[in-house]
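Q: For a teaching handout, I want to show students what a protein-ligand complex looks like in token form. Below are the inputs, and the small molecule is copper (II) ion. Please produce the holo structure.
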Amino acid sequence: MKSRAALLSTVLAFLLLAGCERRQDMLYTDGPGAGSIAWLSWFVFILFCVVTIVMWVLILGGILRRRGSFDTHEPFDVGGGQGWLAIGGFAIPVVILFVSFILSLRGMAEFPMHEDHEGHNGSSSVAPDIRVIGHQWWWEVQYIGGPVDQRFTTANEIHVPVGRPVNIALETADVLHSFWVPKLQGKVDMVPGYVNNLRLEAAQEGVYRGQCSQYCGAQHANMAVIVVAQQPKDYEAWRAHMVQPASQPSTPQEIQGQEVFLSAPCANCHAVRGTGAGGIVAPDLTHIASRQGLAANMFPNDDADLEAWVTHAQSLKPEVAMPNITQFDGVELRALVAYLRQLK
Ligand SMILES: [Cu+2]
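A: Here is the structure, written as tokens, with copper (II) ion included.
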């Protein structure tokens, strides 16, 4: 009995905590895009409940009504009854569908129209601030707004200023993916050979988790993105730091680590701006130490997880396009990790 009560209270506490977390909640939102979708969902849901209740009241009324004989009832097609068919079967559904349609158009206005490849225009054409490219199974993030020397590439973590809309162009390098940060905006697919657009705005400071929402292979479930919404001045400081090349190693261990990194296969796939490493098929590592997660936010970004990732990527995220790299001895591995950890 006692253990059952303990189990119950654990479950309840877990549910309560899970409720507080709300990191990927689409009904309790923090941005206008997701807000209008959530509002529409509640509206349609409540309307559905009202219609259902009215229907059941009418059905039960019909069932429970005292029956008379054929003599006491007129035939059903005599007078009046058809009016109810026209109202209940036609007029009310048309009004409800029309209102829902207009409200969904309002929600769609949150997604910017944009020039397509042939140069045809939508209702307005917006230069994107950020290009996000889906890869199996991580997100390439290119800041492409502003002058050329203010542009940079990062991965898996998108920073935005609070209270300002950011236009994002969505593309894919391989298969279909879908970009979805539920608390901020509806999902938009990333389609091969095509550019889709999304306008994202966060009303509150915070870290918002998102998720690839279109099945894209073995590690689809481990393709997470985070959006960090910051006060404008913190955001500007972050940007100013991100355009800088990688910090130079200073301790002997970090210097050895950089040599290990540059002589290992890492540089074929990864870039570290300011060094010889210029690979473009994997996440940019110039400021890897400043990111919160590793491998599309599958693991926390710390020494132990980094060490494990470098040597066992295939066991941790099977089928990923990074091999297990097993050529290092202990000293080299720790030096490599020390080097990566100072790439703030
Ligand atoms: Cu996916």
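A: Two things your students might notice: The domain at 252-341 is CATH 2.60.40.420 (Immunoglobulin-like). The longest strand covers residues 166-172.
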